[in-house]
Write a structure and sequence with these properties.
The complex is a heterodimer of chains A (262) and B (249).
Chain A lengths: L10 H12 L15 E5 L7 E7 L2 E12 L10 E8 L14 H16 L9 E3 L3 E13 L4 H14 L2 E2 L9 E2 L7 E8 L2 E4 L3 H5 L3 E7 L5 E7 L6 H23 L3
Parallel strand pairs in A: 4-6
Antiparallel strand pairs in A: 1-2, 2-3, 3-6, 5-6, 7-8, 9-10, 9-11, 11-12
Chain B lengths: L30 E5 L7 E7 L2 E12 L12 E8 L14 H17 L8 E11 L4 H15 L9 E8 L2 E4 L3 H6 L2 E8 L4 E11 L1 H37 L2
Parallel strand pairs in B: 4-5
Antiparallel strand pairs in B: 1-2, 2-3, 3-5, 6-7, 6-8, 8-9
Helix pairs in contact in B: 1-2, 2-4
Classes of the chains: A alpha+beta (262), B alpha+beta (249).
């Protein structure tokens, strides 16, 4: 998350947000557990096997899936391969730089990857063409285009939506094109802690003044599939439990409202 | 352990309700902590936790470098988690990979929550975690040893950081996963707190858990962390009595 080391967020704005929180509302008028408007536009890049442009408020990411034929890892000859990579493009935030992935983008990639993988979105066993020799390799690449907070959840939604629309390019290899088999729908919900308050789907201002962050990814069966606590602040166990329960509830709403038709 | 095994081939819990290494569900592996094991470091610690062997060296607070990493309000805590090439079954290519970069980040953040960083503006505190042999749970073993090493360096802290893992294998919630349970189980939760208040400073999870299982895992962790905290404190006080024995009161 772009913690702005330059302290660009003004004290006036910080105080405004904190005062609002003590009145029970957020700076932008939302409830503590309310998401901003989400939009998902699939097949944005027809050249990709699957793709999705996702916005959460003013945060915007573009996820693309490419599927290539390749060799399995030697220790998992009966499984396909899944990789997830998030690029924080320099156009998206003043302090982002081009170059190899840094620890921030690696953390986001790995948290999104864990949600997709452990959420059993795709079954890697379904991707085997010839055991030990040929499998499908699914690359999920996510470009962050515009940052206004909560990159984690935008990337998760993009990855899920892109996978759900992806087609395995069999014809290029003398096979048949086929829809990528997709099972579960993991949805992540990220919370930020500001003072003693915890808000879901933080904006960039809320992130810049937050002490701690936690992401909880759940599937439609109400099970927890991935979690990640971040930053140097702390949570009580009660706060973690609340985050888990809220994530299950909001995940269900997001799945119903935005992912059903995808 | 067969190389090509999957979860279904391997029984991780026997008919007597014991784990492959003979432990009960909420039993820790043996843990040993030693303090001040390195000559040049400002503080250091060595931990053996099951088959894990991890050395931690702390350097600092010292002037942060490069200069643009300096923070005028507080010290910058930089933990670097690194695995020896021979520490795992298949040789690990030396140098940071994506996994160790992520671990270094979450461990740095967890340590920063305990260290009174406001006392050292423009400084950095380097914490080097070298995993000599890995046997599941290296990040929390490394973090547990790191906080001891930081304390041994005389750096002021709000509390020690104590970590442990819980998880699920063969459908059972288990404390302190072994390597087999980690590889073939259904969930893994690295977890660390400040023991005095119980505040959570590190938490990750991957796998498949219900809310009830998560709460069960937490109560196992809560009990175990108190025990490990005592081991940390004993190791630290022993390092002081050793000095007294050597140099007199």
């Amino acid at each position: 998350m772009p913690r702005d080391e330059l302290g660009i967020l003004s004290e006036i704005k910080k105080n405004f947000i904190l005062r609002k929180l003590s009145d029970g509302v957020r700076g932008d008028g939302r409830k503590f557990d309310e998401f901003r408007e989400i939009s998902i536009q699939t097949n944005y890049v027809p050249r990709a096997a699957g793709s999705a442009m996702v916005t959460i408020g003013k945060t915007r990411i573009l996820a693309g899936v490419k599927i290539e034929m390749g060799e399995p890892f030697p220790d998992t000859p009966n499984q396909g391969v899944l990789t997830t990579n998030v690029e924080l493009l320099p156009i998206s935030f003043p302090t982002f730089e081009s170059g190899p992935p840094n620890e921030v983008s690696i953390e986001i990639s790995r948290v999104v990857d864990r949600g997709i993988r452990e959420g059993k979105t795709i079954e890697l066993k379904d991707l085997v063409i010839e055991e030990g020799k040929k499998v499908w390799i699914v690359f999920i690449d996510i470009d962050v285009l515009d940052v206004d907070g909560n990159i984690f959840d935008a990337c998760n939604l993009g990855a899920v939506a892109a996978l759900r629309t992806a087609v395995i390019p069999g014809e290029a290899h003398g096979l048949k094109d086929a829809k990528l088999p997709v099972n579960n729908t993991p949805v992540s919900v990220t919370f930020a802690k500001l003072g003693d308050w915890i808000v879901a789907d933080p904006t960039i201002e809320e992130e810049q003044m937050s002490s701690a962050r936690v992401t909880v990814t759940t599937t439609e069966d109400g099970h927890i599939r991935a979690m990640q606590k971040g930053l140097s602040g702390t949570f009580t166990w009660k706060e973690i439990e609340d985050a888990i329960n809220t994530s299950i509830r909001l995940g269900k709403e997001i799945r119903e409202k935005y992912l059903k038709g995808v | 352990m067969t190389l090509l095994g999957t979860a279904s081939d391997i029984k991780l819990i026997n008919d007597d309700g014991l784990r492959l290494d003979g432990r009960g569900f909420d039993e820790l592996r043996p843990i040993k902590i030693e303090v001040n094991v390195l000559n040049r470091a400002d503080g250091s610690a060595y931990i053996e936790w099951g088959g894990n062997k991890i050395l931690v060296g702390v350097y600092g607070p010292r002037e942060a470098y490069p200069k643009h990493s300096q923070n005028i309000n507080k010290a910058f805590v930089r933990a670097r988690y690194s695995m020896a090439a021979f520490s795992v079954d298949e040789r690990k290519r030396p140098g940071p990979d994506r996994r160790s970069i992520e671990i270094s980040k979450v461990v740095s953040e967890a340590l920063e929550s305990a260290i009174i960083v406001e006392q050292f503006p423009r400084a950095e505190i380097d914490v080097f975690i070298e995993v000599l042999q890995a046997d599941a749970g290296t990040r929390i073993a490394g973090l547990t040893a790191s906080s001891v090493a930081v304390a041994a360096a005389g750096i002021p802290m709000r509390d020690l950081v104590v970590g442990c893992t819980a998880g699920k294998a063969d459908g059972q919630v288990l404390l302190d996963l072994s390597k087999e349970e980690d590889n073939f189980g259904q969930a893994d939760i690295p977890f660390a707190i400040l023991p005095k208040t119980g505040e959570v400073v590190l938490m990750q999870m991957d796998g498949d858990l219900t809310v009830e299982e998560m709460s069960k895992a937490h109560s196992m962790l809560d009990k175990a962390l108190k025990h490990i905290y005592n081991l940390q404190r004993e190791a630290l006080s022993k390092s002081f009595t050793d000095v007294v024995a050597q140099w007199g009161e």
